[in-house]
């Protein structure tokens, strides 16, 4: 279906919704996430059944086959440019495959200035202990600048020992509520959800964000970022 929950035609891209007796009823202790992904389609089905919003972008061909196209929740719009976050994550993972266990890239909007940034959260491997966090961050940033388009380069890189996931969520992309920039009163060894994740990078404040944009990628006259 399209963004207005209307069926799309053959060979048109829409988001896949699934339902049936095997569908789960809710996320444990996460009513907000349940409401986000379980929806009623009574205008199409004439019942009150819930359907799961998968986030998968698919299209139906003439043979009745469902063709996977991509992910809805991995696409963001940044200064007029539509960006596939998954593509950035693949580049980050490839930059130091021997030192990175996982990666999540997300868009952050600074409240006071409404400026938008890409932030890359990186979970390092325990075997990469000999590589300092600053060196790892620097190597990843340089690799991204080499293999990504300018406006796709993250402005901020945060290295974690462990992703602070909710215990009821299996995929880091399903719940990013804990992955927020550190506030000014948080130390670099902040404890998220009981795990010492050792956040690397400067503590967050508006002045730092301005410096980060200037250092990691200045915006040019048409709003696109220049990776330095």
TrEMBL record:
Gene3D superfamilies the record matches: 3.30.300.30, N-terminal domain of ligase-like
Origin superkingdom: Eukaryota
Stretches of Polar residues bias are at 178-192
* Residue ranges that the Swiss-Prot or TrEMBL entry lists as coiled coil: none
Give the GO terms filed under biological process for this record.
amino acid activation for nonribosomal peptide biosynthetic process; secondary metabolite biosynthetic process
Q: Which GO terms describe its cellular component?
A: cytoplasm
Identify the species of origin: Didymodactylos carnosus
Region of interest (Disordered), residue spans: 173-192
One example GO MF annotation: phosphopantetheine binding
Matching InterPro entries, A to Z?
Answer: AMP-bd_C_sf, ANL_N_sf
Q: Which protein, by its recorded name, is this?
A: Uncharacterized protein
């Amino acid at each position: 279906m399209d963004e207005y929950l209307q069926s799309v035609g053959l060979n048109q891209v829409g988001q896949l919704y699934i339902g049936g007796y095997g569908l789960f009823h809710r996320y444990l202790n996460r009513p907000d996430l349940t409401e986000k992904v379980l929806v009623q389609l009574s205008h199409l089905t004439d019942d009150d059944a819930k359907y799961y919003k998968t986030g998968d972008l698919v299209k139906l061909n003439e043979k009745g086959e469902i063709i996977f196209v991509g992910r809805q929740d991995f696409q963001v719009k940044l200064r007029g440019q539509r960006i596939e976050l998954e593509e950035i994550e693949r580049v980050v993972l490839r930059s130091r495959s021997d030192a990175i266990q996982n990666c999540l890239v997300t868009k952050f909007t600074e409240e006071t200035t409404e400026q938008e940034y890409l932030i890359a959260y990186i979970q390092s491997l325990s075997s990469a202990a000999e590589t300092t966090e600053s060196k790892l961050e620097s190597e990843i940033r340089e690799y991204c600048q080499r293999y990504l388009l300018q406006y796709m380069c993250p402005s901020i890189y945060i290295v974690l020992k462990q992703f602070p996931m909710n215990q009821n969520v299996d995929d880091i992309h399903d719940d990013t509520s804990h992955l927020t920039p550190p506030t000014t009163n948080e130390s670099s060894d902040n404890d998220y959800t009981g795990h010492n994740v050792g956040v690397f990078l400067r503590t967050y404040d508006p002045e730092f964000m301005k410096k980060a944009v200037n250092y990691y990628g200045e915006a040019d006259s048409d709003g696109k970022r220049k990776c330095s």
